[in-house]
Design goal:
This protein is α/β, with parallel strands linked by helices. The chain is built from 14 helices and 18 strands.
């Protein structure tokens, strides 16, 4: 595979994008923590898998209070991962084997160790340093009451009170996430200018795209009202404010200023946007704003044919008026892994419902995850794959509580089990931990790996033609080779209840059976790929198949 074609302006419309959580992908220096040297050593795996781009979760300097989403310096790589020079070398090395790089930015907040915030804490109320954040006097006698009662994304309060130089209680500062992640004030020109410079910094280094964390949260109503019981469009005080679109139009101008026929090609913007209002969601995807956005609705749906079809229809209908491609994703670094999730009685996903000790049938979950892989890869648009899902890794739910660092766990008092279960270091080879994640003689991995993962290593699955890895490699190879797959139209076909069947172009059909009975396959000339062996009775329950069909 050669490097990306320089003239390929539309690469992002049907790309397969692989999410790397650097702490848990591969450890090159033996400290038990994944790093850039480890990623570079495993580029062959990603090339063989058939991905078009890597999305790195934050690799910047950070105290890691929230897994790197608390950034201290966007222009420096955290020493746990390597150096800026290593990042530049990795971007170049990946591009040489046909893999572009997407980096994560977190514009809603920074770390409380960021120089701006440290300067703000040291400055007086009303100072220019504090104007970059949301410092505000408290309410009630002595200012002892928080300015608002907005809920936190991580549970708990969204305001923390400071101390004055003389030790007396001072102003409060806003943090929609943890207290270690103070929110920035996007009405301040310094904040806008800094992030625009950060975009240019990484685009100049050959990055092909930027994923925007919590993209709908940046702008707040300066009056700081409480959240209405049922806010109308644009009325929420801290989510989906209309002023956001001006910001992203400015970012799009920066992305478009880089020539599409140079280096990695067109630079793109990808939004993390959780909004129930579809019309508000697609406003971010207008031709002068973001290129794509994550499709969380599809990810969160249960393993149910009617629910999945409704999500697919709503997604495609929403994207059509703005001409943006849909994205399809089954999991990420925040979400319970599909093998575990699909094996539960309630197979959808929501943070509110995530609880420790929820029973799961891993055999059932694995069968459904295989079928879901073919379903999502056959849909029109781009595909996101979270590291380890190509191995069929389950959620690791037996972690000791004293190893859990996630603020979602800590701030909920342990009610929410947190997200470490999907962030356990990957198994590469061998019959015991660390399964090749680290070199021989290394420190223990930052999170322990379960011993039973010996059967799920890359090496073990490469030797098994029926493995999850073999399925993903075959699916992505066919997806790349078939002109009808990827971006483009789709047409639903008649099917029994509980069965999804659709045609891609004139010659490819996907059928997924979620019903309790075998499904009859449409007329076809060949089976391209199946998630489980076909039977004489047709397509078995919880199985998907790609067929070669005639128009």
């Amino acid at each position: 595979m050669d490097g990306p074609a320089a003239h390929d302006e539309l690469w992002w419309r049907d790309a397969v994008i692989y999410e790397v959580y650097p702490r848990s992908f591969a450890d090159g220096d033996g400290d038990g923590i994944g790093d850039l040297a480890g990623v570079r050593s495993r580029l062959g795996h990603l090339r063989e898998l058939g991905v078009d781009a890597i999305w790195f979760t934050p690799w910047y300097l950070s105290p890691m209070a929230d897994g790197g989403y608390d950034v201290t310096d966007y222009r420096a790589i955290d020493p746990a991962f390597g150096t800026l020079a290593e990042a530049e070398e990795l971007i170049t090395a990946a591009l040489a084997v046909g893999i572009r790089t997407i980096v994560d930015v977190v514009p809603n907040h920074v770390s409380d160790q960021h120089p701006w915030f440290q300067a703000a804490l040291a400055a007086a109320p009303g100072s220019p340093e504090r104007a970059r954040f949301w410092f505000h006097p408290g309410r009630g006698p002595g200012g002892a009451e928080m300015p608002t009662h907005w809920p936190s994304m991580f549970g708990g309060d969204t305001w923390t009170r400071t101390k004055n130089a003389d030790g007396t209680p001072g102003e409060w500062y806003l943090h929609l996430f943890s207290s270690g992640q103070p929110d920035l004030n996007w009405s301040h020109p310094d904040v806008r200018r800094e992030h625009e410079d950060v975009l240019r910094f990484w685009f100049d280094r050959g990055v092909a795209g930027v994923r925007i964390d919590s993209a709908a949260l940046l702008v707040k109503d300066p009056a700081l009202p409480e959240i209405p019981a049922d806010p109308g469009p644009g009325e929420h005080p801290n989510t989906d404010r209309d002023e956001l679109h001006e910001i992203y139009r400015g970012w799009r101008e920066i992305a478009d200023s880089y020539p599409a026929d140079h280096g990695p090609g067109r630079r793109i913007l990808v939004g993390e946007i959780w909004l129930p209002d579809v019309e508000r969601f697609v406003r971010y995807l207008r031709p002068d704003e973001l290129h794509t956005a994550f499709n969380f609705d599809f990810l969160a749906r249960p393993w149910d044919a009617a629910q999945l079809r409704a999500s697919i229809d709503a997604t495609l209908a929403a994207h059509a008026p703005v001409g943006a491609p849909a994205t399809w994703v089954l999991s990420n670094h925040d979400v319970t892994r599909p093998v575990t999730r699909y094996g539960r009685a309630e197979s959808g996903f929501s943070f509110a419902a995530k609880r420790a000790g929820t029973p799961t049938d891993l055999e059932l979950g694995r069968r459904r995850a295989r079928a879901a892989a073919l379903l999502s890869a056959a849909l029109p648009g781009s595909l996101y794959l979270y590291q380890g899902d190509e191995l069929g890794l389950p959620e690791y739910e037996e972690l000791d509580d004293d190893l859990r660092q996630d603020p979602m766990y800590l701030r909920s008092g342990g009610v929410d089990p947190g997200r470490e279960g999907c962030r356990v270091p990957l198994p590469w080879h061998g019959d015991r931990p660390p399964f090749g994640f680290s070199p021989p003689g290394a420190q223990p991995t930052w999170l322990p790996q379960p011993a039973e993962w010996a059967e799920l290593t890359v090496a073990a699955q490469e030797a098994d033609p029926g493995s999850m890895l073999a399925l993903y490699r075959a699916a992505l190879r066919i997806r790349r080779a078939e002109p009808d797959l990827g971006d483009g139209p789709m047409e639903w076909l008649p099917a029994a209840d509980g069965v999804l069947a659709f045609r891609r172009g004139p010659s490819c059909t996907c059928v997924v059976n979620l019903s309790p009975r075998p499904a009859v396959l449409p007329a076809h000339t060949a089976v391209l790929l199946a998630s489980a062996p076909l039977t004489d009775g047709g397509l078995a329950r919880d199985t998907a198949v790609w067929l070669r069909t005639s128009p």
